């Protein structure tokens, strides 16, 4: 009884002891008692007595509902679960459709063609990539002082140019030492040699083993489709192919 009383709001151990001492040692006695009888107990006012009776009645209703739910057989529960279907929100349905489309793409995905590289190029391509990461950005002299100059690189010039004269604490200049390996110069990161293409006739001069096509920016959509179609027939890789 002490645990049930102390679990209710507004009743502590002192009030619970007073109620039990006054003869209210069961919940049924408290429910059947009037407000006047409860208020005679020391420490219990009219508001506390009302909330006490209300809380005990509410707890009884909850316990009755739980018993009714437990009394149902397992077969009925299974049928109810099958019948009740919660409506899925719109966001989840969109996500499912996106997942399906992504899975369809993976099924129809074709791997990009790789170049037939020599041992030297295979050796120096990763070295060139590492050197490129370490290469600094080259900015024009005094780009930070005058906005009209811009950042694009220009060779420093002038008799008094401190950047040209290699003074300390000046920006990096373009030099021969920043270049990559000679055998990989001008190659695409994939190892292919890039060949500019403007029509279907340009594809005939390409070696599909070591060279790849790059369609010119001025080529229209109709001609681009024709080039891509013929390139797939000749097994030529297009570096800027539209998806």
Q: How many helices does DSSP assign?
A: 9
Helix coverage percent: 40-55%
Average pLDDT for all residues: 81
In the predicted model, the low-confidence regions spanning at least 5 consecutive residues are 61-69
Secondary structure: number of strands? 2
Strand order in the sheet with the most strands:
1-2
Structural class, judged by helices and strands?
mainly alpha
Q: What would the principal axes of the Cα set say about the shape?
A: elongated
End-to-end span in angstroms?
A: 74 Å
Radius of gyration over all CA atoms, rounded: 42 Å
Proportion of beta-strand residues = under 5%
Helices, strands, pairings?
Blueprint: H1 2-6, H2 13-21, H3 27-32, H4 35-39, H5 46-71, H6 74-83, H7 90-107, H8 119-134, E1 193-197, E2 211-215, H9 221-234
Parallel strand pairs: 1-2
In short:
By secondary structure, this protein is mainly alpha-helical. The protein has helices spanning 2-6, 13-21, 27-32, 35-39, 46-71, 74-83, 90-107, 119-134, 221-234; strands at residues 193-197, 211-215.
């Amino acid at each position: 009884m002490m645990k049930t009383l102390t679990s209710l709001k507004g009743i502590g151990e002192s009030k619970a002891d007073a109620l039990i001492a006054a003869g209210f040692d069961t919940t049924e006695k408290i429910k059947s008692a009037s407000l006047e009888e409860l208020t005679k107990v020391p420490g219990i006012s009219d508001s506390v007595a009302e909330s006490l009776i209300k809380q005990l009645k509410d707890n009884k209703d909850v316990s009755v509902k739980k018993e009714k739910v437990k009394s149902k057989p397992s077969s009925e529960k299974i049928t109810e679960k099958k019948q009740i279907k919660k409506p899925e929100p719109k966001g989840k349905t969109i996500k499912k459709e996106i997942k399906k489309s992504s899975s369809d793409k993976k099924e129809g995905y074709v791997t990009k063609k790789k170049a037939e590289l020599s041992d030297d190029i295979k050796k120096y391509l990763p070295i060139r990539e590492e050197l490129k990461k370490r290469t600094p950005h080259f900015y024009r002299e005094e780009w930070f002082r005058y906005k009209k100059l811009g950042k694009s690189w220009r060779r420093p010039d002038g008799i008094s140019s401190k950047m040209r004269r290699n003074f300390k604490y000046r920006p990096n200049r373009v030099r021969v030492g920043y270049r990559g390996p000679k055998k990989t110069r001008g190659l695409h990161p994939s190892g292919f040699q890039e060949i500019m293409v403007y029509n279907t006739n340009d594809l005939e001069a390409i070696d599909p083993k070591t060279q790849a096509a790059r369609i010119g920016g001025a080529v229209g959509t109709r001609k681009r489709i024709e080039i891509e179609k013929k390139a797939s027939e000749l097994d030529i890789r297009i570096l800027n192919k539209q998806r």
